[in-house]
What does this fold into?
Amino acid sequence: MTESKTAPSARMTSLQRRVLIVAILSSFVAFLDGAVINVALPAISEDLGGGLPLQQWVVDAYLVTLGSFILLAGSLSDVFGRKRVLYVGLIGFGITSLLCAFAPSGVFLVVARGLQGIAGALLVPSSLALIISTFSGAAQAKAIGRWTALTGIAMIAGPLLGGIFVDTLSWRWIFVINVLPIAVTLAVMLTLKQEDKGTGGHIDVYGAVFGSIGLAGTVYALIEQGVYGFASPRVLIPLVLGLLCLAAFFFTETRVKQPMLPLGLFKVHNFWVGNLATALVYGALAFGPLMVTLYLQQVIGFTAIQAGLVFIPSTLCMLLLSGLFGGLAGKYGPRLFMAVGPIIASLGFLWLLTMGAEASFWLHLLPAVLLFGVGLSITVAPLTSAILGAIHPAQAGIGSAVNNAVSRIAGLLTVAMAGLIVGQHLDRVGFDRALICTAALMIAGGLVSAVGIRNREPAAAPIQTTMD
It folds into this structure.
């Protein structure tokens, strides 16, 4: 795609504005679907059965394939072109969303969610790569901030939309609604006439196979251990197979010509430190709000709509503040924001420890979600800018894919470990443990950023990702 970059002070061109719209909408549907599912889990379990294991699988089937294939998707984006990959991802996401909506059983829904994750994996890396290749400097940081604000809204506002559909229509509508933003995105993409052939090359098939089997086996064992125990062959065999495949995956990535996970990228300081912070922060982000939403519905007695309304203040924080902090990070450097933001967000989860048998919105929930929303707004755009700004723009697709894979896999593992942390039935004691674990992950992410992130680190030269 022909690049059209601006100086930091220049206003966006018409092309840049349309690219930003496409990037936001295409990522929005993937993030929305990952968040909207939370408040629907009790209704899905009531309709299809399965209890907590089904609820975990409905979340993790999507995250397993999303995390497994997002690295491959980054390579596909660079090799075949960002627009082509986006087209395939959007159409595939629409089809699989309808499969989820009409699922007749829990098993069918889990399989459909896995397929949906594959399509979703094609969306985020390509959309961020479009931004990186079209904007530069402070304008790039500001564009990422806007992308973060509006796509981040999907992650927080999803529970509200899900609650409305669950209480007024059916949980199945949370998947049908995906078709509308997909249709709008495809229409805008038709106006982007610029050439986007990609760089060509080979696809890392072995890496995709080993990575997906490794994650699936490991996650299966973590979820099912609560029912069968780690000593059961039904858990032990998948766990061993998963770990062996993960080991084979990393070995393969050092041997193939064009690896889906170029380990050389981790030689770039801000890239590896930022991804470590990403794993901690996004692991908490996937686990904490899920536990809060389930606890409010299943223990306190909130309706799906009431549980979704709880996160509206966080949505407003993301909308109002993410662009601001993205721009400030571009001007002053990301370290301070990445250090302070997660710690502020952790205070929100710790505040919920004051909640008793009944939850007061004004006393317990509002202060907590405001702290969480402000902390997240301070963190996310600077985090993305620090990581992607540290690598060469030519590798924006794979760099974005690696960062998104780290965040999805971190969330995948924390959700899979829910049974270990809270037990097989969510109660007050388990909820407190979940809050403390979430806060600890957030604080650790802030400390890693405070110690490790460097301000003003120049973008690295292209990293050698092929073996001679």
Remarks:
- The CA atoms of residues 6 and 12 lie 7 Å apart.
